[in-house]
């Protein structure tokens, strides 16, 4: 199989719906909770954990079976208990053409799971008094050249940005952004630094008044990154390295700030409006496009093992003071018709389900999909990464939901 570069598809409603659908499942799981089984009468019950073989063996077998069933190139997965063991598994290939096997240390972009690190940094700084979550963002950004054209600029607070309640549009889904990326992605450096990204929404109408609704916005998280740096006088990546990556031993997680990222698995992308090639890695192992355009909208490459350890540490209370974690987990519904599906500060919160409360996030970027879920009642985080986004979300199938459910069935303790 040799992926061929295709002409850029039109950035229309069909692509927009597919991309948004994949995000909503990967990041929020809005269509179903993982591990749900139907029983007579329509009630929901948690499936019993498999007990016939050791957990590491069963976990690997489940991952292999998912690849055999759905045909993706490769994947990694991991689990981490807050007070017990952890495990990792890998299946398939990290590079189809080179026949390079996927391993537990194969890196992939974590995409929007990076928002959990951004929000944790902000929550920690708020706990220390460096930031005020309910202060207007003009305190830190009012002198920027684009600020006077920012929608809702007078009333947006840092908390609004972190909770996706600012009313800002999302530059990622604007046709102007897609067209600009399609023209410039071949440039060797990062043609889209943070200020350039924000300018795509400057002068556009707000979606709603701050706090009056919910709409996912990567642009909002770019603004959060600018605020973190303005408030501390430090580079964001230095902050996250010192506060979380080094203390927690997340040695496979690093900034996605250059095209050459050691150990990166090749990704295989579905049609995208950016004109990016189907295979994300060039023959020399460099990323075809500069990942710096994500920055604090995501901005990290990682492994499933590191992501699971991060989830266990963050949501298990080892990464932040209790008050800071409580701020992150204070959440409101994303839609009136789904009151149990909520979003806090950089974290999706599911209040009820067959395995109890679930916290987490997901990530999608062309060529890669990632998932992180923490099951609070069991004290365990489960993460996985897949090196394609092709065919994972259709009208009849959600591979992401299926994998979340299957891995949860294997790992979570039986009732």
Can you offer a commentary on this structure?
- This protein is an alpha+beta fold.
- The chain is built from 12 helices and 14 strands.
- 53% of the residues are buried.
- It is globular and about 60 Å long.
- The strands form 3 sheets. It has a 9-stranded antiparallel sheet, sandwiched between helices. Strands 6-8-7 form a 3-stranded antiparallel sheet.
Short description:
With 415 residues, the chain is α+β, with helices and mostly antiparallel strands. It has helices at 13-28, 55-70, 114-127, 138-141, 158-162, 175-184, 194-199, 218-232, 236-245, 304-315, 322-329, 399-411, and strands at 37-38, 44-45, 74-81, 86-95, 100-101, 108-109, 254-255, 300-302, 332-333, 341-343, 348-350, 358-365, 368-375, 380-386.
- Main sheet makeup: 9 strands, antiparallel
Provide the succession of SSEs: HEEHEEEEHHHHHHHEEHHEEEEEEH
Q: Biggest sheet: strands side by side, in what order?
A: 5-4-3-14-13-12-11-10-9
Mean pLDDT comes to: 89
Low-confidence stretches: 1-15, 30-48
Radius of gyration from CA coordinates: 20 Å
Number of helices: 12
Shape: globular
- The structural class is alpha+beta
Q: Helix proportion of residues, in percent? A: 25-40%
Question: Strand content of the residues, in percent?
Answer: 5-15%
Distance between the termini: 44 Å
The total strand number stands at 14
Task: List the keywords.
single chain; about 425 residues; alpha+beta; 9-stranded antiparallel beta sheet; 3-stranded antiparallel beta sheet; 14 strands; about 15% strand; disordered N terminus
């Amino acid at each position: 199989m040799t992926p061929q570069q295709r002409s850029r598809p039109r950035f229309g409603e069909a692509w927009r719906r597919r991309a948004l659908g994949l995000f909503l499942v990967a990041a929020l799981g809005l269509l179903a909770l993982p591990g749900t089984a139907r029983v007579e009468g329509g009630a929901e019950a948690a499936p019993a954990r498999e007990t016939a073989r050791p957990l590491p063996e069963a976990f690997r077998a489940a991952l292999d079976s998912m690849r055999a069933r759905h045909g993706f190139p490769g994947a990694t997965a991991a689990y981490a208990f807050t007070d017990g063991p952890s495990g990792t598994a890998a299946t398939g290939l990290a590079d189809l053409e080179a026949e390079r096997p996927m391993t537990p240390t194969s890196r992939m972009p974590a995409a929007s799971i990076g928002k959990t690190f951004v929000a944790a940094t902000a929550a920690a700084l708020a706990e220390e008094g460096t930031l005020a979550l309910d202060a207007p963002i003009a305190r830190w950004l009012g002198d920027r050249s684009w600020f006077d054209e920012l929608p809702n600029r007078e009333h947006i607070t840092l908390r609004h940005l972190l909770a996706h309640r600012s009313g800002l549009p999302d530059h990622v889904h604007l046709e102007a952004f897609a067209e600009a990326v399609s023209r410039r992605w071949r440039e060797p450096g990062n043609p889209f630094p943070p200020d350039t990204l924000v300018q795509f929404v400057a002068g556009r109408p707000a979606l709603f008044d701050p706090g009056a609704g919910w709409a996912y916005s990567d642009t909002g998280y770019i603004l959060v990154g600018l605020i973190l740096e303005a408030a501390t006088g430090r580079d964001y990546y230095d902050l996250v390295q010192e506060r979380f990556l080094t203390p927690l031993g997340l040695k496979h997680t690093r900034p996605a700030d250059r095209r050459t990222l050691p150990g990166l698995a090749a990704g295989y992308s579905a049609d995208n409006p950016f004109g990016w090639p189907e295979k994300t890695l060039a023959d020399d192992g460099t990323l075809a496009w500069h990942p710096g355009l994500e920055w604090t909208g995501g901005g990290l490459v990682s492994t499933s093992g590191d992501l699971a350890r991060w989830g266990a540490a963050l949501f298990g209370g080892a990464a932040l003071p209790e008050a800071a974690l409580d701020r992150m987990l204070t959440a409101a519904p994303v839609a009136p018709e789904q009151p149990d599906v909520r979003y806090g500060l950089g974290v999706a919160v599911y209040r009820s389900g067959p395995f109890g409360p679930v916290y987490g996030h997901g990530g999608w970027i062309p060529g890669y999909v990632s998932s992180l879920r923490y099951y609070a009642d069991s004290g365990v985080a489960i993460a996985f990464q897949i090196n394609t986004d092709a065919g994972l979300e259709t009208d009849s199938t959600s591979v992401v939901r299926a994998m979340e459910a299957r891995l949860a069935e294997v790992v979570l303790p039986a009732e």
